[in-house]
Design goal:
It is built from eleven helices and 16 strands. It is of the alpha+beta class. Strand 11 and strand 12 form a beta hairpin. The chain is elongated.
């Protein structure tokens, strides 16, 4: 008789606390719209045990949930819904563990929902955007450890006063037996890459660096050597900027492709271990998620090294599959740096590995100043002479004090050769815009003329300043040492036609 009476009232209420044929402690309201429902046979669930979200009780067993909504015609507020539900749960022997109704934060409720499997369905109750003055939640628990039942509900009145509620229940059960068996005779087979064979030959003209052996089964697709260049060595993760250490010396870049089965992490760790064994110290190591988005692109793109890297480093983000490290070793002849990244687009693609070896060394000092006698002989022989002892402040036309000796030699030559007139020609490398470089070279040539006239009393009619910028290079502008050759002041014979 009691069950029949309870069933009668359940049909009238928006919910009713009783198990039905679907094993729901609080059955779905047939008059409401069901947005989503789900169930799992055996999962762990954390149930909120206080309003602050500091305590949770983990229950593992059968899980069910649903999200429903009722139109504003029902006239039911979220607070009435939750208070009525709490009363009926208590009447059925449940203990209310947490209850927050009216102007309460949903952070405690969200704490275990947002980063769990439950979010996939429960988010549809729109708890994240619910207002504090029109939402609330409760949780209730019943029974002893081993046979606990728990209910957790979030409810709110949303647009046009529509009532939405997310219901969850967990009934503690023993783990079901799936019949899975384990082979006791299974033995772990050690990885052995030594027998891998490269599927292709090295690209013509490429070679390994003599310090580093190649990974088994790899082949070279590109390599490059810069005799003297600077390099931005990565020493930390990319946040607002990329932490780098500027090193310089001979730089060797080798681009490899490796068997897809190996994977980039095995390559990464093998080379780290080999370098550590050889006396290197690890400066920095990271994987894609910790390196920072586009760290390689933004570090290499503004340098000449970008063209030496034959890999898709431009698109490496936190979601990519790659690893990076930088290491150093102190030797009697200077430091050696090794930096490497290994990446793989997908499991079917080859591993791309790029190694940069920087052999730190100081650029040899040469005699830059040309004495007046040599000036005379060079102009007599070729009609011009290139000078590197005239130095300017960076990106300016002002002369450095170090230029005084060379200017004195030019003045001595002109004072001894009274009939000679010269073009003073300024040259730059090809970095930057053409118009800017041409103007800079002309201003620098003019400054040399002005100084020879004012400081050494050379007749200004004997000197004609000319700026040609980057149009007459002595070498390709592909390395720092070559660009230094192109940054110069040249004296060209104007009259007489020859000496």
């Amino acid at each position: 008789m009691f069950k029949k009476t309870l069933a009668y009232f359940c049909a009238l209420l928006p919910f009713c606390v009783m198990a039905n044929s679907d094993s729901l402690i609080v059955p779905m309201n047939k008059a409401a719209k069901t947005i989503v429902s789900s169930q799992y046979s055996y999962v762990p669930v954390d149930i909120l045990m206080d309003n602050q979200g500091n305590q949770f009780q983990s229950i593992t067993g059968q899980y069910k949930s649903y999200v429903q909504q009722q139109g504003n015609h029902s006239g039911i507020s979220y607070s009435h819904y939750l208070e009525d539900l709490a009363d009926k749960l208590v009447a059925d022997g449940y203990t209310i563990a947490a209850k927050c109704i009216g102007k309460c934060s949903n952070k405690a409720y969200r704490k275990k929902i947002d980063n769990s499997f439950r979010y996939k369905n429960i988010y549809q109750v729109s708890y994240a955007s619910a207002r504090k003055d029109s939402s609330g939640y409760l949780s209730a628990i019943k029974g002893e450890t081993g046979s606990r039942h728990a209910v957790q509900v979030f409810a709110h009145n949303g647009h046009r006063n529509v009532l939405k509620y997310a219901y969850e229940q967990i009934i503690e059960t023993d783990m079901p037996n799936s019949g899975v068996a384990v082979n006791n005779n299974f033995k772990i087979q050690p990885l052995d890459f030594s027998s891998l064979k490269a599927p292709k030959r090295d690209e013509k003209g490429t070679t390994d660096h003599p310090m580093v052996e190649r990974f088994p089964g790899s082949y070279i697709v590109a390599s490059a050597v810069n005799d003297f260049e600077s390099y931005p060595l990565i020493i930390g993760p990319y946040k607002k900027s990329i932490p780098t250490k500027k090193v310089s010396g001979k730089i060797t870049t080798v681009n490899y492709r490796i068997d897809p089965k190996v994977g980039p992490y095995a390559v990464h760790m093998n080379y780290i271990n080999a370098l550590l064994k050889a006396g290197f110290s690890l400066i920095y190591e990271c994987s894609a998620v910790s390196c920072g988005n586009y760290i390689l692109r933004d570090n290499l793109k503004p340098t000449i090294h970008a063209k030496n890297h034959n890999s898709d480093f431009y698109n490496l983000t936190r979601k990519s599959h790659y690893y990076l490290f930088s290491a150093e070793k102190v030797t009697p002849n200077g430091k050696v740096y090794a930096t490497m990244y290994s990446m793989q687009i997908s499991g079917k693609h080859s591993v791309e590995m790029v190694v940069d070896i920087i052999e730190e060394r100081v650029m040899s000092k040469v005699a830059l100043n040309v004495d007046s006698h040599t000036l005379s002989k060079q102009i007599q022989a070729t009609g011009s002479v290139s000078l590197y002892g005239i130095e300017f402040d960076f990106d300016k036309h002002t002369l450095k004090d170090s230029s005084a000796k060379q200017l004195s030699e030019i003045a001595d030559f002109l004072q001894k050769s009274k009939s000679v007139s010269l073009y003073v020609v300024g040259h730059t490398d090809n970095k930057g815009m053409f118009g800017y470089n041409q103007d800079l070279s002309k201003r620098r040539a003019q400054e040399v003329v002005n100084t020879l006239v004012s400081n050494y009393q050379i007749d200004k009619d004997r000197l004609v300043p000319v700026g040609v910028g980057p149009v007459a290079p002595k070498a390709a502008n592909d390395t720092e040492s070559n660009m230094q050759q192109n940054r110069r002041v040249e004296l060209v014979l104007k009259s007489p036609q020859f000496l």
